[in-house]
Amino acid sequence: MFLGCAIPYRVSAYETSARKVLQKLGVELAEMPEFNCCGLPLDPVSHEMMLILAARNLALAEQQGLNIITLCPGCAGTLKKVNKMLKEDKALREQINGHLKESGLEFKGTVETKHLIQVLMEDVGLEKIKNAVVKPLTMLKVAEHNGCHILRPKEYIGFDDPEDPQTLKTLIEATGATCLDYMDETECCGAPSVGVSDKIALQLARDKLSHVKMVDAQALITICPFCHIMYDTNELRIEKMFNEAYGIPVLHYPQLLGLAMGMTPEELAFNEHRVDTSKIIKQVTESAQ
Amino acid sequence: MTETIKEPIKASEIDPKFKYEISKMHGGEKLLRCFQCGTCTSDCPVARFSETYRPRQIIRMTQLGLKERVLNSDALWLCAACFTCTDRCPQDVEVASVIRVLRNLAAEKGMVPLVFKEQACSILESGYAYKIPELRLKKRETQGLPPLPKGNAESIRKSLSGVKFLKAIEKKGEQSGQ
């Protein structure tokens, strides 16, 4: 299990719910005591530093002979991209291995990295997930947001169709909920611009929230800690800034799946959300009775 | 970027080798293929809300060799790295990667927003891009989560020795007496 930085820093509800759901679906996770940042946050200032940090993580997993699962699309994208780059470019591989040598590590290119939803779709399988659903969420109409790095750049990631992604939609529908189409579904949440231009970042997030509201979605489903921070943590800030009201709860996909698998909102750490989730919890619990 | 094109271009500020320098770097290889169609800018989510950020303009300035203008431009740091431009470019230019190459060069000269310096320092200290508060670590126990990987800062620092960017921020720190 590769956690990355943002999840332990601010988004533990995602981790809590993902662990519970994976455990119930029979996915066993190994903890890796020496994993470090995937490298992505430093790519803008030092591509070299990003490559070394990513290769270090891959080499650590290789030592254990284990594939990597991440909850963060940024981490998944980075580890996939670097894995491909180093496998294909011998000179680059030797350069990076030169850096790792002193720590007794070597990148060989023997493991794979997958994001949570890729593992759910390809390794657990849709049938098993559908069979685990004991409380179909047929009363819910929700919208999905994939986030950029699970899909792009296409050449390196090679997962789903970045222009019309289907995996998350299919997984949402497996819970019994309806997944609504809306305008600009694949638009960026703005998170990478935070710290450089908060104004642009929040305008992007606002755009998304207003498009989601337009189709009357009861919740927005995310699979990325950064997207979740933009839409949940910052939703009140956006409402104030633009003098608008959204009130859209933002759920991590494993929270939605967990509800359908019969887990309680407490187990799935709904209490950690900034936007009020009581309405959606009520809808789920009342219609189940 | 508007402020950077107000001034007329002087022949003396053009570095004709700049485009070749960028083309040699990973991600910048296809810079010269750009024929300025503008797909990148029209599909860019940031450009929609920014008065100054125009990826097409950055690419053109790079092709023209306006090195100092590009590297000193604040707009360079607005890209959200969503890679929509890269995926949609009809000429296969890795637009977002060219911008990353330019940012890397600017950073080596010490021109870098504070947020990146903070993240770099945090990684060297703890292995994580953010300083994860003690309270969060304790809370994990009550949430039934396994302890967070401690990282191995010493080993990370060893692996990262010799990285140009880190040398640049160290040097900058010394100069300003930090």
SSE topology:
The complex is a heterodimer of chains A (289) and B (178).
Chain A: H1 6-10, H2 12-24, H3 47-64, E1 68-70, H4 73-88, H5 90-101, E2 113-115, H6 116-124, H7 126-132, E3 141-145, H8 154-157, H9 167-173, E4 178-180, H10 198-214, E5 219-222, H11 225-233, H12 235-242, E6 250-252, H13 253-260, H14 278-288
Parallel strand pairs in A: 1-2, 3-4, 3-5, 5-6
Chain B: H1 2-6, H2 18-23, H3 39-43, H4 45-49, H5 55-64, H6 67-72, H7 84-88, H8 95-108, H9 114-126, H10 134-142, H11 153-159, H12 164-175
Word description of this protein:
With 289 residues, chain A is of the alpha/beta class. Chain A has helices spanning 6-10, 12-24, 47-64, 73-88, 90-101, 116-124, 126-132, 154-157, 167-173, 198-214, 225-233, 235-242, 253-260, 278-288, and strands at residues 68-70, 113-115, 141-145, 178-180, 219-222, 250-252. In chain A, 50% of the residues lie in helices and 7% in strands. The radius of gyration of chain A is 19 Å and the shape is globular. Chain A has two domains: 6-115, Up-down Bundle (Glutathione S-transferase Yfyf (Class Pi), Chain A, domain 2); 125-288, Rossmann fold, CATH 3.40.50. Chain B has two domains: 2-108, Alpha-helical ferredoxin (Fumarate Reductase Iron-sulfur Protein, Chain B, domain 2, Orthogonal Bundle), CATH 1.10.1060.10; 114-175, no CATH class. In chain B, helix 5 (55-64) crosses helix 8. By secondary structure, chain B is an all-alpha fold. Chain B contains twelve helices and no strands. Helix content of chain B is 54%, strand content 0%.
User: In DSSP terms, counting alpha (H) and pi (I) runs of 4 or more, how many helices of chain A?
Assistant: 14
CATH class of the largest domain in chain A, named Alpha Beta
CATH architect. name of the largest domain in chain A: 3-Layer(aba) Sandwich
| Distance linking N and C termini of chain B | 31 Å
What spatial form of chain A do the alpha-carbon principal axes imply? globular
Q: Element order, helices and strands of chain B?
A: HHHHHHHHHHHH
Looking at the structure, the CATH topology of the largest domain in chain A is Rossmann fold
Question: In CATH terms, what is the architecture of the largest domain in chain B?
Answer: Orthogonal Bundle
- Largest sheet data of chain A: 4 strands, parallel
Order of helices and strands of chain A: HHHEHHEHHEHHEHEHHEHH
Number of domains of chain B: 2
Tell me what portion of residues of chain A adopts beta-strand conformation. 5-15%
How much strand of chain B?
Answer: under 5%
Mean pLDDT of chain B: 90
